[in-house]
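Homework-ish question, so no full write-ups if that breaks the rules, but can someone show me the predicted structure for this set?
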Amino acid sequence: MKIRIWGARGSHPHPITPDQFRERVKSIVQRVREEDISSNENRERFLNSLPDWLWNPPGGNTPCVEVRLSDGSCLIFDAGTGIIPLSQRMRSQEPGIQDFHLFFSHFHYDHIQGLPFFSQAYNPSTSIHFYSPEPDVEYNLKDHMQHPFFPVTMEEKMTGKQHFHVLRSDHRGNRAIELNGAKVEWHDINHPGNAYAYRITEGDASVIIATDYELSDSDFAKQSRHGTFFANPDVLILDTMYTLGEAIEKFNWGHSSFSIGVDFAHAWGVKTLLMFHHEPQYSDKRLYNNLRHARWYAERQNYPDLDIRLAQEGMEIDIP
Ligand SMILES: [Zn+2]
Ligand SMILES: [Zn+2]
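A: Not a homework solution, just the prediction itself:
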């Protein structure tokens, strides 16, 4: 299984402004010594030695995560603006892929606003499967793509075959579907208007995508409503939008702090925690500071086995 991050910002896109761009170039130029530009090799070495906030920015697109199964099946979680570069890359590098499986955590703008620009949906030879536990999935998606909000509608112009799947539990109450050899489970998480986390398991590999999630004490209890949904995944992609102070200030806004996220990941035996749904008001430097603080906090709490990373566009994680 392979995971690719295409958009990791929350709430709204965060394009770099001209001032920020100039500041960034200035910060880089100030660090250059003569020998750093004396050869191509030195230049590469210099660039790769820059702090991550300067050379590996997390990017400004809103949530979109691709999960590739071992047979190449393409599962996409949320259609924030990150789905636009995904779509462009697929068109140029993998034009043969014709089946797409799009799962939605919920329908807030930042999670659907890239869908009108998903060019594969306008190709009659593709099949797009849309999934959500919300009975209104079809209505919600079609409703935001019509005049006066957008010039073309899903019905008239999106000529790819559309299949809408309302995810429902089976007669035993299991909330899971089988998809091309993998299992996809879903689970309610606390967010205004409700949102859903997804867990994808293929063989021994598993990833959970839990974005737009305000954690509370009850989420840590092993005998809670969560059952085994959060137990021992290889990767947990989690809403860690705020600092603790801000999360307290923004109680009930539907997002979590990175420190409670670290505790949560440890409590459920997560191997790798990917900090996700970055606050758009935070600079890249601040996001990397938050990562440092999250790692420091994990060390202080004595969670030595927890690997913590910041989700950034272009990041790929292979789970064997
Ligand atoms: Zn969001
Ligand atoms: Zn939301």
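Now go work out the reasoning yourself. Hint: The CA atoms of residues 53 and 120 lie 33 Å apart.
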